[in-house]
Amino acid sequence: MICIGIEGTAEKTGVGIVDSNGGILASCGNPLIPESGGIHPREAAEHHAAAIVPLIKDALKESKLNIEDIDLVAFSRGPGLGPGLRTTATAARSLALSLNVPIVGVNHCIGHVEIGKLTTGAEDPVSLYVSGGNTQVIAFESERYRVFGETLDIAIGNCLDQFARDVGLGHPGGPEVEKLAGKAEEYIKLPYAVKGMDLSFSGLLTAALRKYEGGAPLSDVCYSLQETAFSMLVEVTERALAHTKKREVLLCGGVAANSRLREMVSIMAEEHFAEFYMPPMKYCGDNGAMIAWMGQLMYKYGLTQQIEDTTVIQKYRTDQVDVPWMHKSGKHLVLPGKIAEKGAEANIYTCKWLNHEAFVKQRIPKSYRIPEIDRRLRKKRTKKEAKLLGEAKMCEVKTPLIYDINRKEHALVLEKIEGKLIKDVFEDASLDEIKVISRKIGENIAKLHNCGIIHGDLTTSNLILEDDSVVFIDFGLGKNSDLVEDKGVDLLVFKKAIGGIHYKIADLCFTEILKGYETADDYREIAEKIDEIEGRRRYTVNNTGQD
To answer: Who contacts 60 (Cβ-Cβ below 8 Å, separation ≥6)?
Structure first.
């Protein structure tokens, strides 16, 4: 079975040919490089229209095949720029009809993950997918790829490109920012916006531009922007790795071309006792081979479409797609005996404190981060966590006792809670038990929010069930705020975390959490804010953009 894949989600046109065994027979591409400014959707579509036929000829020549040898046509159905998607789909339909072969539209984001797995041998990774239009932390769970973290506004590639355009570096900006970053002499403090496993780049972009406009050397601003943004990306990837307990990390997407990002992800994986994978550079950016390989996978499991069903989906979410070929790996994260647990920023060790069973939570240095960022975060988060653990108790929310604080080592000695993580409880509990526990969780979140406490990283890995009480741990990303926006984000972070690991009961859990949360002072306004914030995501289930 020979499949030809056509890619046209953004500015690069790609055509690839892959056989049913995963042999990549051809991969040809033609990027649109504008003379000035960014990518205009209509210009991208015109570029695809002009490039697709020549690229098909090039791919056939490279593969030493004739057009009659093609058995299947695949195309990128979304997400992407509407005009380009429609141009690509039209070309794919015409080709499939002329050859009288099946056609399948595929998800572009999953294509990046699958070509990464094909070319590296990774089995079940946590994937950091970074490109001009996408920033997602993806992992397989409950029969689909789940988005554990993503940008709440602009993608990392768009952030770098827009900065470069605004300071006169041209397009694409990522390589130019990387070059100048290598000439920097000083780090400039910039905002660091991580929200659970989600992140935001718009404020960082604005701050970087203001530093440059204020007279800071461009090389220093490029360096500071790159280090801050990439540290955020690697942190949320490690948080997903800790949450899922997987043993593999895959870096994919066009921004993977940045050598500093590759270095940072590789260091993180090694220090987290996981394996690091990255596809060859020619398969990191958008390419037709990944579309062709996705077509093969979908065809094998009967997921082709009729011509009339090949509409494009401009906002096509990764977690909308069934992936019956995918299975969880039997390999799980194995920690050294001295480490009881390992999170994204801290190691947990068992100890004794005045004859009491206790834990030491130490925020260890992160080698992937530069010292200026690392020291600031470790100091700030240790201090903030100690403060919020105490404040939460005053609000009648159960948290571990703090026995000691070691400021020099950025460590807390905490009471050992004799209970079970909610993450594990939900695996075995009945639906009625899950409802009761979820309501208790909601009631306690309401208590925190009524006291102006934002947890910052609500997941079922940061909650413990002790007897009939829910104990809240890990306030490192927390803060004090009475803003409805912050409370809504806090709950949305939790909703997404539940959806990633506990997909089959996620709706039930969150419904019951909100019922418990009804005691919150601003309940109605916050509930509406959750929907509003969720609607801001780049790709939303309720706005698929089919046409």
So the answer is: 17, 26, 66, 67
* Residue 93, burial from CB neighbour count under 10 angstroms (0-12, 13-18, 19+): middle
Q: Please count the residues of the chain.
A: 547
Note the Cα 304 to chain centre separation in Å. 28
Rounded distance between C-alpha atoms, residue 384 and residue 389, angstroms: 9
Contact (CB, 8 A) for 188 and 218: no
> 372-404 b/e with 16+ CB inside 10 Å = b?
ebbeebbeebbebbbebbebbeebebebbebbe
Burial of 258 from C-beta contacts in 10 A (0-12 / 13-18 / 19+) = buried
Instruction: Find the catalytic residue in 153, 198, 319, 457.
Output: 457
Joined together, the tokens standing for residue 315 give 């906002």
Structure tokens at 205: 């972009």
Is there a catalytic annotation at residue 309?
A: no
pTM: 0.91
Q: Which residues does 14 contact at the CB level (< 8 Å), separation at least 6? A: 5, 6, 7, 8, 27, 28, 29, 30, 55, 286, 287, 288, 289, 291
How many C-beta atoms lie closer than 10 Å to residue 447's C-beta?
A: 18
Could you tell me if 289 and 24 are in contact, meaning their C-beta atoms sit under 8 angstroms apart? yes
**Going residue by residue through the chain (547 aa), what tens digit of pLDDT does each one get?**
999 999 999 999 999 999 999 999 999 999 988 776 677 889 999 999 999 999 999 999 999 999 999 999 999 999 999 999 999 999 999 999 999 999 999 999 999 999 999 999 999 999 999 998 899 999 998 889 999 999 989 999 999 999 999 999 987 889 999 999 999 999 999 999 998 889 999 999 999 999 999 999 999 999 999 999 999 999 999 999 998 999 999 999 999 999 999 999 999 999 999 999 999 999 999 999 999 999 999 999 999 899 999 999 999 999 899 999 999 888 788 888 889 999 888 999 999 998 899 999 999 999 999 999 999 999 999 999 999 999 999 999 999 999 999 999 999 999 999 999 999 999 899 999 999 999 999 999 999 999 999 999 999 999 999 999 999 999 999 999 999 999 999 999 899 889 877 878 999 999 999 999 999 999 999 999 998 888 766 554 444 445 5
Q: Which amino acid is at 532?
A: E
What is each CA distance from 34 to 38, 79, 164, in whole angstroms?
7, 22, 14
Q: SS3 letters for 487-513?
A: HHHHHHHHHHHHHHHCHHHHHHHHHHH
Q: Judge whether 269 and 59 are in contact, CB under 8 Å.
A: no
